[in-house]
Every structure is written in structure tokens, then in C-alpha cells.
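Example 3.2
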Amino acid sequence: MTDFSPDSQTAVAASTPPATLESAPPRGSNLHYIYTFLLAALIVFLSFAGADQQGAIAQKRGHIFFYLVTIGSEFFLLGLTYLGIRFSRMRFREVIGGRWNTVEDFLLDVAIAVGFWILLLGVVAGIAVALHLNQPGPMDEGRKTIQAIGPKNGAELALFIFMSTVAGFVEEIIYRGYFQRQFSTLLRNAWIGMIASAILFGLSHGYEGAKRMFIIFVMGAMFGALAILRKSLRPGMMGHAIFDSVSGVGLMLYDKLQKSGAIK
């Protein structure tokens, strides 16, 4: 039976440490949301401001230069995101989530990543067909993209895979780690926050065009759902890196088949 006597209440009060200035939320603690929206606005601005420059830069300066600039921009955004994480009083370990205590833990996340990648391929292919991206007009646009930014040789492919790996890890931290957490807390619902983050993820790829941005939004929602269900970014990071890297291999093979006349 619980004792509610005055003596017991005094004892409990005495054993409870008083709130300190360090543990209490400071005035204006919600200001970190302002930084979140400013960073989101910057990402969208950069996405659309350079929407028509991607291919031109790659063709003018070369693919190696383009890939290096892309890698640098990823780390630049990661740095800005790190500031947001610090402003929000989060830690990188909290943002990434999960822990590999055994080899089996690691292998489980690898298996989830590969399975998720296969699912992602099917969903993306299905949406692409539904949006008629397999028709002559959109296919011609796809060929231009391949010619503009797709790797042409082994060295470019190696750097493309490295770029894809960086993007996979960095973008999961930015969108599913930082933004999804911020939006979820602000909107008081993890799934609504996930949708908001997925929308931002789609908008961050303005150079892809409206239909492909929608596909990227769906991909963002799938990665976000995986992060919520798994309570970790780790399988999503690996799945994202695999998806982008395999896409680079596919771009290179498609280019070679097209040049050989096997594909018209």
C-alpha cells in the first residue's frame, strides 16, 4: 500500500534534485526552429537557383569537377545541419540512432538495407511508368541527363560511387535525422513530420523536374518511414548509398549500350 503521509512526501521532496539553470529550457528556446526554417529555405533556394546549371557545369568543367563540387556541397550542408543539431541540443548519436553491439546487429541492418533497396527500385519503377516517364519525351530528357552527369569511365564511376556514398549518409542525417526530428517535434506527430521532411527532400532536387521531384518525395517518405520503424538511420543510410551507387553503374552501362547502338 502506498504511504501518503506528510513525512514520506517530505522525504521524496528532499531526495529529488532541484531544477538547475542548465537543465531548464532557456527563454526563447524555440528559436532553433527559426534556424530550421532558414536552412530549409536555403536548401530550396539553392535547388531551384541551380536547376538549369547541373548539366552545363558537368559538360563545361568535366564530371570529376562536378562530382567534387557536389561532394563539397554535401559536406557544407552537413556543417550547417550540425549547427542546427547543436542549437536544438541534440547529439549526433541521438540523431543517427541505433547501435551495433554485435556483428549480427550490423548484418541485420545490411539485410534491411538491401531489401529496402529492392523495394525502392520496384516503387520507383512503378511510379515512373504511372507518370509516363518511359515515353519518348521524358526518355529524351533522361538521355540528356545521362550524357550530362553520368560517369563515362572507371575513374569517374569510382568517384561517382564515393559521391553517392557521401550523399547517402549525409542526406539521411540532414533530412531523416535533423529535419524529420524538428518537424515531428514542432508538429507533435512523427508521421506528419516525416511527410514534411519528405516534401523538403523532394524540393531539394529542383533540377530533376516536377515528376521526378514527386518520385524523390515518395522515396523520402519511404526512407522516413524506415527511420521511424527502425528507430535508426543506419539501414536507410546504406540503402540510400546503394540506390545512388547502382544508379551510377546503370547510367554508365546505358551510355555505353546507347553508343554501341544496342539501345536507340
